[in-house]
Amino acid sequence: MERRRFLQRGVAAAALGTVGCLGSGGEVVVTVSRDVRIEPGTGWIREIPDVSDPGGSISYISRSQAPFDVYFFTSEQQMGRYDDYTSGEDPAQPPTGDRDIGRTATETDGGQYKASTKDDGARQSIDESGPYYFVLDHSDYPAAGGAWPSDMPKRRSIYLDLTVTRKRFGL
């Protein structure tokens, strides 16, 4: 009986210790928690500094009453091509960005549209070097999105909760 209690306590202590290490493993470099208004044919863009050395992560949840796309571009060149497209130019091979992080918002049971990192907004590793560009898109950008607005004339309001962290210590 004593052995079982000892093992249960040991497992609980190990679990709590692991949670503590994971929770304090980074420095927040970007945080946004607000409604963002986006004009038709454009995107809301947030530049994010490089967090690849020794590693970083991103988590976000975004919600709106209408469809939208999220792009995560991993270079100035990709961002420039997106800018060219939304400015009316037709760049060759518009980049999709990191599709493991970027998403097309999907309709929820409540009729809202939602896009988030995996597991409903959990942290995801950023595997590429930066700078990075996080984009909430309200245009017909064709690269990978599926939220082509049918009612472009209306401004879009999207609630965004975004956090980007840099690890303090390498593993």
Features:
single chain, 171 residues, alpha+beta, 6-stranded antiparallel sheet, 4-stranded antiparallel sheet, 3 helices, 10 strands, 37% strand, disordered N terminus
Question: In brief, what are we looking at here?
Answer:
With 171 residues, the protein is an alpha+beta fold. The protein has helices at 2-23, 76-86, 118-121, and strands at residues 26-38, 42-48, 56-64, 69-73, 103-104, 106-107, 113-116, 124-126, 132-138, 156-167.
Topology:
Blueprint: H1 2-23, E1 26-38, E2 42-48, E3 56-64, E4 69-73, H2 76-86, E5 103-104, E6 106-107, E7 113-116, H3 118-121, E8 124-126, E9 132-138, E10 156-167
Antiparallel strand pairs: 1-10, 2-9, 3-7, 3-8, 3-10, 4-5, 4-9, 6-7
Rg value: 19 Å
Which oligomerization state do the chains in this entry correspond to?
single chain
Provide mean pLDDT, rounded: 83
User: What best-fitting shape do the alpha-carbon axes yield?
Assistant: globular
Proportion in helices:
10-25%
What is the makeup of the main sheet? 6 strands, antiparallel
Question: By helix and strand content, what is the structural category?
Answer: alpha+beta
Give the terminus-to-terminus CA distance: 37 Å
What is the succession of H and E elements?
HEEEEHEEEHEEE
Detail the poorly predicted runs: 3-7, 9-22
Kindly estimate the percentage of residues that lie in beta strands according to DSSP.
Answer: 35-45%
Number of strands: 10
Question: Can you walk me through this structure?
Answer:
This protein is of the alpha+beta class and 171 residues long. The chain contains 3 helices and 10 strands; from the N terminus they run H-E-E-E-E-H-E-E-E-H-E-E-E. It has helices at 2-23, 76-86, 118-121, and strands at residues 26-38, 42-48, 56-64, 69-73, 103-104, 106-107, 113-116, 124-126, 132-138, 156-167. The strands form 2 sheets. Strands 1, 3, 6, 7, 8 and 10 form a 6-stranded antiparallel β-sheet that branches. Strands 2-9-4-5 form a 4-stranded antiparallel β-sheet, with helices on one face. A hairpin with a 5-residue loop joins strand 6 and strand 7 (113-116). It is globular and about 45 Å long. The chain starts with a helix and ends with a strand.
